[in-house]
Amino acid sequence: MFGINLIFLLLIFVSSAFGLYLLGLDVYASFGIALFITLFAYMASSYISRQKTRNVLALSISLGAALLIANLLAFSLSRIFPSRYEFFVYLISNLVVIYIFIAFSYSKRHELRYVKLLNFLRGTDEVSGVPKLVDTSALIDGRIVKLAESGILEGELLIPKFVLGELQHIADSTDPLRREKGRRGLEMLRKLQELNNRRIRVTVISDNPRNREVDHKLINIARSRRIPIITTDYNLQKLAEVQGVEVINLNQLSRALAPTVFPGDTFSIKIVRPGKEAEQGLGYLEDGTMVVVDKARRDIGKTVNVEVVSIYQSDTGRIVFARKTDENGSREEVA
Prior knowledge:
Blueprint: H1 2-22, H2 27-49, H3 53-78, H4 86-107, H5 115-122, E1 132-134, H6 136-141, H7 143-150, E2 155-160, H8 161-171, H9 176-194, E3 200-205, H10 214-225, E4 229-231, H11 234-242, E5 247-249, H12 250-257, E6 266-270, E7 273-274, E8 281-284, E9 290-294, E10 303-314, E11 317-325
Parallel strand pairs: 1-2, 1-4, 2-3, 4-5, 9-11
Antiparallel strand pairs: 6-10, 7-8, 8-9, 10-11
Helix pairs in contact: 1-2, 3-4, 8-9
């Protein structure tokens, strides 16, 4: 690549110097201006090579469209003005139209669908659905993988690098529980990447706003790209909604898809740990809903029959309160 760059830069320098010399400039002026043009071309190519493909493609297509429209406009205006002003008409028309097109294209680069053309040239298909920004909590939770596998969740899933950094930091924690959560989040990300197809695609993005708080970084990215955030964090959801950002809360989605239970329903459940109050035992439904069973503390590790007494619903989830019953559905009497 170095050799190709050197050849083209030499061609630019020689052709510029020769052209300027033919225009009447002396040798030193021609070489000086040619050197400036060559350096400008090198710096411009270096800057463009560091930009995102989406941005470069958007600016390139806009530049082409702007040149076409600007020259058509200048051609029409040149019929009105005297011929001695023709050069200035073309110059001003091109500058004005190119500036307008490039400014608009760059500000709307996340909304414009130029990336479809790039995917076509690459021979790949763009995934269907709206892109979505994934929060750390959604990866640790893990249900996002099941949603993607089932086809309910589709589109491009954007994972900011600072989210990966947060997962790695959690995975390196000295606290065993936090360490397990971090490793689970990284494992869920790996499973999502293995699902890459026409329905789902995982993309790691380098957007890194200057905010220190991860929540504010996510919200800023979602606002600039006009895309929703996938999370299980209730506080992040409220903060994002206040700022006009759409949020997909996996807890709310899970509750919407979960089987409905009503007072009087009976089912079997495994008691896994003691409850907050005396004699209470806790179990969980398949969707993660907590079930508080009265007088079940002694049944930890066992599966018992229960009857729903009441249901407490809040913005952060629901809790089912139940009491033990015998195999016939009759309430157990405990001495």
